[in-house]
Each structure stands twice: as structure tokens, then as C-alpha cells.
Amino acid sequence: MTKTPAARRGRPRNFDRDKALRSAMNVFWQHGFDGASMTQLVDAMQINSPSIYAAFGSKEDLFREAVELYITSDGDSTMRALTDDGDVRDALRSMLAETIQTFSRYDEPRGCLIVLGARHLGPIGDPVRTFLRDQRERIRVRLAERLLKAKQKGELAPEADEEVLATCVMTFLNGISIQTVDGVSQPILLAAAEQFMDHLFPR
């Protein structure tokens, strides 16, 4: 008799993987990797824990997939800014405004998953901490590349340091995440973003 493959055991017939993954993303977004319990994941995804392990592997594997979904969905304003061919100032202003709106929406958890995903950082070699750090670094590197391209096009002064500017933008982005969780209002954050842009990228 042919045995059922282990990877398929426990998976319900009408399993909507994409919907379950988005539900898991929201749990991790709200509670972080360490704070999200299997009970919370089971309740949100509406499948039992054996089915979660069969479909996604470990909790860490599920978290990694959830982060990738976040980056390509709720975090896509940053990616759009990095591929926009218009003036870099306009692209970054739009990115910050959209990011503030996303981070402070009331219908979803506040803040940024890749900033707040590891509430308890643990040792520097912790795989979840390393994974999130790598996601943030990937964005910083792409920011630097976008700013270098803008400098080469004459949109920024020749002496502008794209690495420093990219780090400033990332620091502000990360700060927005904390401020939205702390309840700072959208109007205040948008005004702060305008001042930040005016000082960092004077015309």
C-alpha cells in the first residue's frame, strides 16, 4: 500500500495557502516572531498545527514566507520608489507618505514587519534576527543604488554621498515604524517627513 507523503499529512482538502499565509503575516506583524504563538497562528489561519507544518515547514519557515509576502504587498511602496525613473526627491517623498499611511492604518497592525518582527532580538547570530537584518540591508543597498543613479543624472550634487543618504532615509523609515506603534498621528508624521526631505535633499 502506498503511503501518503509526510509533507501532505494533515493538510485540509480546501486549503487556501495564500489566504492562510496572509493571516499568518498579520499575526507576525502584530506580535513579532517570538510573540506569535502557534495557538494564535492556528486561530488566524484556520487550519490545525500539523497542517501548518505540512504546508510551510517550521514556524521560522512560515515567518520567512510571511515577510516575503509583506515586502511584495504592504511594503511595495518602498520597492516602487526604488524603481521609479522620475526625480528622486519626488519618488522618496511619495515613498515616505505611502509608508506612513501604511504603517498607521487602523485595519492592519501598525509599524513595519521587517523592523518590528523580532521583538526579542536574541544573540547576534540568531537566524530570525539575521534574516530581518538582511531584508533591511537589501532595501538600504537598493536605496543607495537609486541615489547614485540620481546623482549620475544630475538630480543630486556631485559631492552627495549616496551611502550616507541611504542610511539617513533608512533610519527615518525605521523611526516611522516605532512612532506609528506609539500612536503618533499621520499629520504629524507627514509633516515630519516633509521637513526631513527638505533638509536632506534641498533643491
Automatic annotation (TrEMBL):
Domain HTH tetR-type: 14-74
Pfam families cross-referenced by the UniProt entry: TetR_C_13, TetR_N
Annotation: DNA-binding region: 37-56
InterPro entries with a match to the protein in the record: DNA-bd_HTH_TetR-type_CS (IPR023772), Homeodomain-like_sf (IPR009057), HTH_TetR (IPR001647), Tet_transcr_reg_TetR-rel_C_sf (IPR036271), TetR_C (IPR011075)
Keyword line: DNA-binding, Transcription, Transcription regulation
Coiled-coil ranges (or none): none
Record's protein name: TetR/AcrR family transcriptional regulator
Provenance organism: Gluconobacter potus
